[in-house]
Design brief:
By secondary structure, this protein is of the alpha+beta class. Helix content is 43%, strand content 21%. The chain has three helices and four strands, in the order E-E-H-E-E-H-H. Helix 1 packs antiparallel against helix 2.
Length: 109
Amino acid sequence: MAEEKVVLCGSSAYEQKYYLNEAFSRLPEQVRQEIQIMCVSFTEDVGGVLLLQYNEEGSLEFVTQADEGDLLYDDIGAGLKIEKLRREKKELFEQLELYYRIFVLGEGQ
């Protein structure tokens, strides 16, 4: 049985679009803006598509994808940038995971 993933947000360099899951529209405006800037900057830098999604345990995962023929997509750069974001935005990601566990999964209620 496949794990159920819940997408928080995503950005596409191909369509030049950003998506925020409506289920998270109650996040503070500053947080919504920060993750939007982060996602859009990521896809502008390395190309492809970036998704931030929660796994069944409520942990945030970064998923990157690129079209098969996309020679401009920087796979190594994507991995390095994800690790940099994990370090620099650690507190933000921890808070987003806590928000998900409390308000979506209903833990602690």
